[in-house]
Amino acid sequence: MSKFCPIEGLDHLEFYVGNAKQAAAFYSKCFGFTNTAYRGLETGERKTTSYVLAQGDVRLVVSSAMSADHPIAQSVLKHGDTIAIVALEVPDAANAYKQAVERGAIGAIPPTEHEDEHGVLKYSAIRAFGDVLIKFVDRTHYPNNFAPGFVARRSVTTSSVGIRSIDHVVGNVELGAMNHWVEFFVKTMGFDVRMHFDEHTISTEYSALMSKVLQNGNKTIFNINEPAKGRRKSQIDEYLEFHNGPGIQHIGLTTDDIAHTVTQLRQAGVEFLPIPKTYYEGLEDWVREIDVPVEKLAELGILVDRDQDGYLLQLFTKPIGDRPTLFFEIIERHGSRGFGTGNFKSLFVALEREQALRGNL
Ligand code: FE2
Q: In this structure, which residues have their CB less than 5 angstroms from ion ligand 1?
């Protein structure tokens, strides 16, 4: 873990959306999240509406604006629904801010203490790529409520689909900007670069991308992608065009039972990237023993990858909004700490098929 900026894990992800009530219903009914807290007109908040959604260790917040000139409304206009804030849990939000800004980060929210009957919540934020903020949250003296102004809600309980935690957060940046932003995480917050995928690892006939994996402690993993030059527009280029710049591309969510989770998600109407049946031909020959039968994997469209540490099972949703930008990955790890390098090729061919359908390849 970084000495000057210790990070205890991901506190939450905040989405800026056009309609928080409907987004909350989507994450509840389709993804199995439970609405645990609310802030809006009924609680005395006049400018924004927010719902907190929880499942396992994952906490999402969806927020919308009440007026056109609010920054959330401006964000929705520019990006569509997007993850605007990645909040990290830290032991000292003022120190994290001070250290990051001294090392070159641009401050967004100076160290702030917000007190109410639940205690004192301390936070601060810096700017990352695009319009994304990295927020530092210290809950030491605020353990029992999401944030001041929020009222706990237990009325809308949905059944979990088995999502446990956030495995990794992936950002897309422009061609040539990856190393700058990797350096930003290393320099300002003490992340280490753990892996590097070049355009030869991640390429198809038409397009390529490059990616670096950053880690701070065991819990917080960021991947940064940039497009590489190819014959046609890459998935990263498509993202950058429709998102109007860099931003969060996908979130990897862990489960202990991917077959169960994916069955539930599919039943609820979540759409996944279709994987050709040929992917499963001969799969048994090289993956060796895994917990889920290959027929089940094929039925649910789950991919397998194996490395020296073990194996992983994964699959990817289609974009969750109208724009081909943000999506989710569901991942079950059995030892492997990788990201499914063996699947990159078939995955990107599948992605390009979708891109072509959208007229974007
Ligand atoms: Fe991923």
A: 252, 329
